[in-house]
Amino acid sequence: MFDMATSDRNNVTVTGRLDGPVALLAHGFGCDQHMWRLVVPALAERFRVVMFDYVGSGKSDPSAWDQERYSSLDGYADDVLTICAELDLTEVMFVGHSVSAMVGVLAAAGQPQRFASLVMVAPSPRYIDDEATGYVGGFTAADIDELLESLESNYLGWSGAMAPVIMGNPDRPELGEELNNSFCATDPDMAAVFARTTFLSDSRADLASVTVPTLVLECSQDAIAPRPVGAYVHAAIPGSRLVTLDATGHCPQLSAPEATARAILEFAGTAR
Amino acid sequence: MDEAQQAQFFALLEDSAEDLYEHAPCGYLSTLLDGQIAKVNTTLLEWLGYERAHLVGRKRFADLLTVGGKLYHETHFAPLLAMQGQISGIALELQAADGSRLPVLVTSVVKTGGDGQPLMIRTTLFDARDRRAYEKELLRARKHAEQAGAEAEAAGAEAEAARAEAEAAHQVAEVERARLQEVVAILQKSLLPPALPKVSGLDAAAHYHPASVDEIGGDFYDLFALGQGRWGFFLGDVCGKGPEAAALTSMIRYTLRAAFLVDSAPIRALTTLNTAMYEHYTGEDLRFCTAIAGTLVPTGDGATVTLASGGHPPALLLGADGTAAYLQSRGTLIGVLTKPRFTPVTTLLRPGDTMLLYTDGLTEARTKAGPRYSEEALVSFGAALAPVGARATISAVKDLLESFGEGLDDDTALLALGIPAHGAGVTEGAASS
């Protein structure tokens, strides 16, 4: 257990081989660190696995919310660096899903000495099409508004009355876990900010800053990060490796956990 | 249940599971784990306007959703279904073949095989048009309330900012006012002699009461040597207040002093002043003043006093014998007529006699009882006081002024000149303000 502020703020959990190299797993927009649970057993045999929830997601501390800070991916990257500093993590393999792949790029650019490698799971540096450059992200700004409507219509397990109970009992996680849909339960206002930050950001220019060994892990059928986007990321990061999983959807760690874990472990074996 | 009844029930009851599935009042959808549609009921096909062949084996569940719905499906719905094995009551929108939208509530369950391995997904979809319309109304009402709250908060913040600004402005004004009062006090002092001179064989005292610390008053007095043991003095009241009155007061004081040096007769001095004012202030800017001026010439053990007055209240003589009387010296307001008229009066001050000069701030002060103080009241006050020295006179009248409180609304100047009673010796002049 950690009693330090960031550990509480971001609900940091550590598992696996404590003397092993560090795998820092960062969830994307939508749910929380539970997204990784099907790949954690395989990774834990070799790695010290560190997971966390972004502020505004999962069981993070809602009082740490700062709309301005979390309206930019830099705010999320800052939190990643704070966690690294607090746990004194070095030689980190950063595994970021979806938008977190870009958060990892920003964090590695901020403190390159901490990071050994980068695994980008279903990444996209920009979701909105860019007519000027012919870039196809797959979406229009109006589509993102529709997503915000869906967020507003579905509170999932979140309720204003229950949130303090879940958030205020970090030592009794079963309180939260028993609630249906709680993995994806977030304050709708915070979720809307995270959604806008995720889907309206353009991080294409940051890809060139990546200098560590990088694995781009894409799905063969991904409605959110279609294959041309994976190819774009692969091409923009010199020396990166592209692996296409035979998987449908945006979350291969759930739909194809064995293949996902295997690809990460293989990459880790060669990247070091 | 008899046979006829049973037959009737069978006719009505759903005896075909096939029909129950196809025409259920909700949409049914069976998909593979990757979302591919394996089976769909007629109800859903009718809602969407698709042929079965369009969907089965060709589309995924997510393909039936709006683009925003697809994003939500990928980021929330599918992960939760994978983690929990079921998910219920999720609001999504279907996109029909003709592009129209149908709000639905979606529930999905993962069907597992005997070994617990997931096999496929079963989904039911309920028409949620009415419910969604209702929710949109609720949402709109909430947003409306939130906006109203935000507007009220903004208005509150604005009011607070305005209050703070007013407070700051008030503080600046306070500082300005303090500065102004300082300037007024300094200017006021400059219009009066800093201290009365020592006069051999004469007891002199003065007092000045400003009505306001913010404005320069228009009352003045002076006492000065004319040579050969003679002394000149005057006391007066300029009409008006403020900077113009102050400038005029300054001019009057130096004009009178100069005039006395040329010709020590009080009538001459007042005439000279009248000429100067009449010529200086013309037309709209009509200015005038009242003044009483006099000379004091040592005579035996007393002094001869000659007084002239221009529209000024008469001097009060407080006799050594305990009586009080006015010294009537009549004359016209100064600065109004080309040819003013002044009637001088001469009297002899004997030891123990004191003469009080004052401005009408004293006699026109409003008493606590209501009516204004008066010359009649003052002469009674003087009679009760006499015999009295100059300083004791000023001290007593100061107390009288204080007793008026708020009723004293004009500037008031006091000058007392007296011959010390035998044995009292020569006393120093004193001014206070």
Task: Report the helical percentage of chain A.
Answer: 25-40%
Secondary-structure element order of chain A, as H and E?
HEEHEHEHEHHHHEHEHH
**Average pLDDT level of chain A:** 87
Largest binding interface between chains: A-B, 38 and 31 residues
Largest sheet of chain B: 6 strands, mixed
Oligomerization status of the protein chains: heterodimer
Determine the mean pLDDT of chain B: 88
Give the number of DSSP strands of chain B: 16
Distance between the termini of chain B: 121 Å
Helicity of chain B, as a percent range: 25-40%
Count the E strands of chain A.
7
The radius of gyration computed from the alpha-carbon positions of chain A, rounded to a whole number of angstroms, is: 17 Å
Q: Can you summarize the main beta sheet of chain A?
A: 7 strands, mixed
Summed up, what is this model?
The complex is a heterodimer of chains A (272) and B (433). With 272 residues, chain A is an alpha/beta fold.
